[in-house]
Design goal:
Helices cover 42% and strands 20% of the residues. It is globular, with a radius of gyration of 17 Å. The protein is built from seven helices and seven strands; from the N terminus they run ααβαααβααβββββ.
Length: 179
């Protein structure tokens, strides 16, 4: 029984570490600034999580032109992908992607796209990373309007060998059969 308590304590500590942001040199959590643009939020996330988060050229181009009105929410989504999402994917954290993303980022998680839509608009749902074609099945979303200030999609893939999350699409709603 004592062994189980020790194991449970270590597991709870590990889960808390996975959910916590990186610490500064003096052990404090860094203060997250108020971002003016989505690109600022992306650059900050890449600086904080360089080993866990990457952008394809297409994804980064989307960040440059993205006009979404809540850049700090984008940062929260990227931070969630670099920490909690990876921990769930790797089996280190038992949680629901859908509930966790909504609670931590205010965005909806979707594990798939319609195959017919992906075939019709391959430029929207495929990207290249490391010289390989990657499918952007998973995405985070907020908003349903066509307003670029109110609506965002973050299409991503997970590279299991490296445990890196790659952002291949960031911008307004991707084209689909309804557009």
């Amino acid at each position: 029984e004592r062994k189980n308590l020790s194991y449970q304590h270590r597991l709870e500590y590990t889960i808390e570490q996975l959910r916590s942001p990186p610490k500064t040199e003096n052990g404090d959590s860094p203060e997250i600034p108020e971002f003016e643009t989505v690109l600022e939020a992306v650059d900050y996330a890449l600086k904080m999580y360089p080993n866990y988060l990457t952008f394809t050229e297409k994804g980064y181009d989307g960040a440059r032109s993205c006009r979404y009105g809540k850049p700090n929410q984008v940062f929260s989504a990227l931070e969630w992908l670099a920490t909690t999402y990876r921990a769930i994917r790797d089996g280190k954290l038992k949680d629901s992607f859908e509930q966790s993303s909504l609670t931590n980022t205010g965005m909806h998680y979707s594990p798939h796209q319609h195959k017919s839509t992906m075939r019709t608009y391959p430029d929207e749902y495929y990207t290249v990373w490391g010289g390989e074609k990657r499918v952007l099945r998973e995405h985070l979303s907020k908003g349903i309007s066509r307003s670029p200030i109110e609506t965002i999609r973050i299409g991503f893939f997970y590279d299991k060998p490296t445990t890196v999350v790659g952002i291949g699409y960031l911008g307004q709603h991707q084209r689909n059969r309804n557009t």
